[in-house]
Amino acid sequence: MPRYRSNERDESNGVIYKDVCNPITAEFREELYTNILDAYARIKEPEKEETQMQDRTQGTKGSFEMPEFSVTVTPYEREGSNIKGLARYLFENSFIVNNINIVQGKEKIFVSMPSYKTKQVDEQGKPIYQDVCYPVTKDFREKLYNEIISNMRKQRIRATKRQEKVQRNIMAIPIKRRTKRRRPFDNSVIRVQGRPRLPLTEWRKQNGYGSRKNTYQ
């Protein structure tokens, strides 16, 4: 399946590559890979392939149903970047597409499907990017993109409410008054004016005081 180079490293400091899209069930994986290999094998028989394509087109015409899917969006904020979110969607609980960007344009937000850089350049000399996967019908594209952008806006609202709740909790914490702690009197030492601090027993000796018994004689 198509992969992209991530910024992560393994235990050996090697680059980790991740799938852009991939099946997540054994049944769908087997069905998908079998169909891909069958299509490749039919390349050598163009006449047979053309007949099969016509049969498939006539058989499916007017019977197309949009697949069920779910969307997951993660808000993304980085200074200087126009990417505002990362998304992925899951089809029929069988196939997942990652690495979808939600981009802030000049006028509105739009969805950018996963793509890779080709060796071609446009008229202005800029590299041309090719989508790895994308919707092929207008109706499904609008439905999918609208769901992604709607999910993105909901995530932003939730994040704003969480931040406001945190701020309210901070403001509700009472501020304790700071009082200067008084140092307890230390009866083991005494300060004599003009002299350094002396132990109490030494001060008594220097001032002619003896034991308690001698003091009261």
Automatic annotation (TrEMBL):
Organism: human gut metagenome
GO process terms (BP): division septum assembly; sporulation resulting in formation of a cellular spore
Keyword set, alphabetical order: Cell cycle, Cell division, Septation
Keyword Cell division among UniProt keywords: yes
Descriptive protein name: SpoVG family protein
Gene3D superfamilies assigned: Stage V sporulation protein G
Keyword S-adenosyl-L-methionine (UniProt): no
